[in-house]
Amino acid sequence: MSYRHILFSVSADGVARLTLNRPDKMNSFTAAMHAELRDALDAVQADPSVRVLVLTGAGRGFCAGQDLADAEVCFAPGEMPPDLGELVERHYKPLVLRLANLRVPTIAAVNGIAAGAGASLALACDLVVAAKSASFLQAFSKIGLVPDTGSTWLLPQRVGMARAMGLALLADKLPAEQAAAWGLIWAAYPDAEFGAEVDALAARLAVLPTKALVRTRQLMHAAPTHTFEQQLSMEGGCMRELGRSADYIEGVTAFLDKRAPRFTGA
User: Fold this and answer.
1) Domain for residue 76, yes or no?
2) Which of 71-75, 135-139, 176-180, 244-248 has the lowest mean pLDDT?
């Protein structure tokens, strides 16, 4: 597929980089960009050489959410607006579920404003890091809508109900450093160091045991709906599976040999 609205590449060291590339529109979503994102994520899923995905934005912003001028959502005065629930089911729900179930760990590198569904997209990744000049905005209440793309699930778990409600109802910008202090994201880096920090983080994840990282994600996502006993059982199942993996054998062998492990993701 030829991409017009995203950039996509895979490096020799297994780092896939997906860049939202509508900088003149703050990388806001259109139907065409959703189609390209689906194709790129499918390519990551099918490529065994990929060990980590970095998702970022071109230009000054990460993603400003839905482009309200896109044909799928725009309407003339006096017309009935299109069915936004259908839009969520067709585009946004599949997008975040793809990220949540991707076979490799994911990093959101938030280089600028992440607003609306753009903020939700970032939070759907396993690790979220941001430039200190970046910010997060749950903008939905400003246009009479509710947070979507998973934010009503993600926000209370990350920052607690009081802060989640404040962010959603008041639609105030949350600076990256405060987002990190609240536990919404992993880290906020100085702008001048942001690119190098993201590269270093991706390189670290690319050489770790991929299956173990993904199973850790699955366990943590399942925990809020499990009893303690159910979670223990799920942990046991993952340990049973991973305890027979090539990466576990390599990890133990390297530990006993007092050398660095060479994980392959198998």
Assistant:
1) yes
2) 71-75
115 confidence band (pLDDT: 50, 70, 90): very high
| pLDDT at residue 1 greater than cutoff 90 | no
pTM value is 0.95
Closest CA to 107 of 227, 222, 189, 27: 189
Residue 73 CB burial class (10 angstroms; 0-12, 13-18, ≥19)? middle
Number of domains in the chain: 2
Q: Looking at the structure, tell me whether residues 246 and 167 fall in a common domain.
A: no
* Mean pLDDT of the 207-221 span: 97
Point out which residues pair with 15 in neighbouring strands. Answer: 52
User: Do 23 and 100 fall into the same domain?
Assistant: yes
* Residue 264 included in any domain: no
Range of the domain at 248: 210-257
φ, ψ for residue 48, nearest 5 deg:
-70, -15
